[in-house]
Amino acid sequence: MKIAAVIPARLDSMRLPNKLLRDICGKSLII
């Protein structure tokens, strides 16, 4: 079974710029 979720997020974060485009454990946050 696959689970998908849509979480609204902003690209221009103050603390971590472009956080949606960064890799975490080899996967980006935007699919």
Explain how this protein is built.
With 31 residues, this protein is mostly beta strands. The chain has one domain. Helix content is 0%, strand content 13%. The chain has no helices and two strands. It has a two-stranded antiparallel sheet with strand order 1-2. Strand 1 (23-24) and strand 2 (27-28) form a beta hairpin. The radius of gyration is 11 Å and the shape is flat. The two termini are 18 Å apart.
List keywords for this structure.
31 residues; mainly beta; two-stranded antiparallel sheet
Question: How many strands, which pairing sense, and closed or not: the largest β-sheet?
Answer: 2 strands, antiparallel
Head-to-tail CA distance between termini: 18 Å
The string of secondary-structure elements, in order, is: EE
Please tell me what the overall shape is.
Answer: flat
Q: What low-confidence regions span 5 or more consecutive residues with pLDDT below 50?
A: none
How many separate helices? 0
What's the helix and strand layout?
Layout: E1 23-24, E2 27-28
Antiparallel strand pairs: 1-2
Short note summarizing the structure:
By secondary structure, this protein is an all-beta fold. The chain is 0% helix and 13% strand.
